[in-house]
Design goal:
By secondary structure, the chain is an alpha/beta fold. It has helices at about 45-50, 50-55, 90-105, 110-125, 140-155, 175-190, 210-220, 235-245, 250-260, 275-285, 295-300, 305-310, 330-345, 350-360, 360-365, 395-400, 405-415, 435-445, and strands at about 5-15, 25-35, 40-45, 60-70, 70-80, 130-135, 155-160, 160-165, 195-200, 225-230, 265-270, 290, 315-320, 385, 420-425, 430-435. Helices cover about 40% and strands about 20% of the residues. It binds zinc ion. Zinc ion binds next to β5.
Length: about 450
C-alpha cells in the first residue's frame, strides 16, 4: 500500500486529560498543524513548530476555516427509529408498543434496511457523529445493512441485532436458538472487520426470557472482545415490571449480573433509577453508562444523576448519547445542551469542556477505544469535525462577543444545531461538507 500523507492547518481543540479532574484539560491550539498518514495522525501541534515536516514530506497543509474538534461519539442510538423521531406524547412502555415496534417491523425487508442504514449514516456525518453504538432490529439483515454501509464509508461503528423473544409482537421475536445463531453469524462476519465491532444486544430484560439472557452471557463468554449493549432502569413502571419478572434477582442491574452480561465492554443506556446496589454493581463490573438526556426528557423518564456517575470514575465510565428515536436530535450539540440542563436541575453545572469530553474523549474511553479515536493526538485515527457558524446570524453575533474558547463552546452547545457542523472527516478524508451539501446545487444551477 502506498503511504498517503495529508495535512491540515487551523484552530483546534483536544483534551490533555479528564476535565472532571483537571480544569485545564481542554487544550486550544490557535494555529494547529495536523499531519495524517494513512488515516492516522502522525503529527499534531503548533503549525510553526511542525511546518518543517511538510517540506520533508513534500506536501502542503490545507487551510481549514473553523474550529477542528474530535469527532463525536454517540454511545446509544437506534437507527431503525430515525423515522419516528418526535412522535407525540408517550412514556416508555407505550412508546415501544405504539411507535417503536411498528417501525421495526418494516425491517423484515432488506431493501428497507439498506435505505434506512444509508439515511442514518448520512445523518451521522451531517451531525458530526463519527462513531456510534447502534441498536438494529431483531432481523439480522438490519445489522448487516448497517455494517455494510459503515464499511462503505470506512466508519468506526459498533452495532448489533436486537435479541427479543417475549413481550413483543410475534413478528419481532426471535428464539433462544435463532437469536444466538444469528448474532454469532454476524460476529463472525463483521466483528473487527475494518473498523467495525459487534455488540450483543438484548433490548432489555423484560423482552428476553431467562434462557435468552443466559444465551447472551454465553455469547459474550465465547467472544470476549465483543460488546454488550442494553437498557436499564429508564422508567419507574419498567423497574417495577422487571422486579415482577425476575423475582430471584435483587435489583435491576443484578438481573444482568445474574446472566453474566456485565463486563467492562457493557454499555447500559439510561440508569436513571439505580439504587445503591445497582451503583455498587456497576462499579464492581466497571460498566459504561450512556446518558441520553433528550430521550429522558422527551419520554418523561427522569433525570440521570451525572454527579454520582462521575464520583464513581474511573470504575464507571460515562458518556453522552442521543437515543434516537426516543431522543429528539442526533446532533451531539443538542444532546450536550440537554445534558447540561438535566444536571442543572440537580444543582450540578457541567462545563463546556466536560460536555464536549463526554461526547468525544470520555465516550471513547468508555468504549475502551481511546487508543483509536476520541481525541486529536498522534497515533489515533483521524476522525474529526469542523465547527463553524453557518447560516445563523444569531450564533455568529453571539460568538463574536465570546471572550474565551470555553465561552465559544458553551454558546455553541446552547444555541447550536447541525448547521454548526461545517465538515466531518473520517480517517482524514472529508465525508461531509455543510457548504457543499447546502450550496453545491445552488451554484451548479447558475
Ligand atoms: Zn434506547
Amino acid at each position: 500500500m502506498n503511504t498517503e500523507y495529508i495535512a491540515y492547518r487551523g484552530e483546534c481543540i483536544r483534551f490533555s486529560g479528564n476535565p472532571f479532574q483537571d480544569q485545564q484539560a481542554l487544550e486550544y491550539i490557535t494555529d494547529a498543524l495536523l499531519i495524517i498518514e494513512n488515516g492516522r495522525y502522525t503529527y499534531v501541534g503548533d503549525y510553526h513548530s511542525g511546518k518543517h515536516r511538510l517540506a520533508t514530506l513534500k506536501i502542503s497543509a490545507t487551510k481549514i476555516s473553523g474550529l477542528i474538534c474530535p469527532g463525536f461519539v454517540d454511545l446509544h442510538c437506534h437507527y431503525p427509529q430515525i423515522d419516528i423521531i418526535g412522535s407525540y406524547g408517550k412514556q416508555l412502555l407505550d412508546w415501544l408498543n405504539d411507535y417503536t415496534f411498528p417501525a421495526e417491523l418494516a425491517f423484515a425487508d432488506p431493501t428497507h434496511c439498506q435505505a434506512t442504514a444509508k439515511k442514518f449514516i448520512s445523518s451521522c456525518l451531517r451531525n458530526g457523529v463519527t462513531t456510534a453504538a447502534v441498536y438494529c432490529t431483531v432481523h439480522p439483515q438490519s445489522a448487516a445493512a448497517l455494517f455494510e454501509e459503515s464499511l462503505t464509508r470506512n466508519m468506526r461503528m459498533i452495532a448489533g441485532k436486537v435479541l427479543m423473544n417475549r413481550n413483543a409482537p410475534t413478528d419481532l421475536c426471535d428464539t433462544v436458538q435463532s437469536g444466538y445463531d444469528d448474532s454469532e453469524a454476524l460476529i463472525n462476519r463483521y466483528h473487527q472487520k475494518q473498523r467495525l465491532s459487534y455488540a450483543v444486544t438484548p433490548r432489555f430484560a423484560p423482552t428476553s426470557s431467562n434462557e435468552q439472557l443466559e444465551s447472551c452471557g454465553a455469547l459474550l463468554q465465547k467472544h470476549p472482545s465483543v460488546y454488550c449493549q442494553t437498557h436499564v432502569a429508564e422508567n419507574k413502571d419498567e423497574v417495577a415490571w422487571v422486579a415482577e419478572l425476575f423475582p430471584q434477582s435483587s435489583s435491576y442491574l443484578s438481573v444482568y449480573r445474574d446472566f453474566n452480561l456485565l463486563t467492562p465492554k457493557t454499555i447500559l443506556g439510561h440508569a436513571i433509577y439505580f439504587n445503591e446496589q445497582d451503583w455498587s454493581l456497576a462499579k464492581e463490573h466497571q460498566i459504561t453508562l450512556a446518558h441520553c438526556p433528550s430521550s429522558n426528557l422527551f419520554i418523561g423518564s427522569g433525570l440521570f444523576d451525572m454527579g454520582t456517575a462521575i464520583a464513581h470514575q474511573p470504575e464507571i465510565t460515562t458518556g453522552l448519547a442521543s437515543d434516537i428515536g426516543g431522543g429528539t436530535n442526533l446532533c451531539p450539540l443538542a444532546t450536550m445542551n440537554e445534558a447540561y440542563k438535566v444536571s442543572q436541575l440537580q444543582s450540578n453545572s457541567l462545563t463546556a469542556a466536560q460536555c464536549f469530553w463526554l461526547q468525544t474523549t470520555g465516550a471513547a474511553q468508555a468504549l475502551s477505544l481511546h487508543g483509536n479515536i476520541g481525541n486529536i493526538e498522534e497515533g489515533l485515527e483521524a476522525d474529526f469535525i469542523v465547527l463553524r457558524a453557518n447560516d445563523s446570524q444569531d450564533i455568529q453575533q453571539r460568538l463574536a462577543s465570546a471572550e474565551s474558547i470555553e465561552e465559544k463552546l458553551f454558546v455553541m452547545i446552547m444555541m447550536g444545531d447541525n448547521r454548526l457542523i461545517d465538515a466531518t472527516y473520517i480517517m482524514g478524508q472529508r465525508q461531509h461538507s455543510y457548504q457543499i451539501e447546502n450550496y453545491a446545487h445552488h451554484n451548479s444551477s447558475r
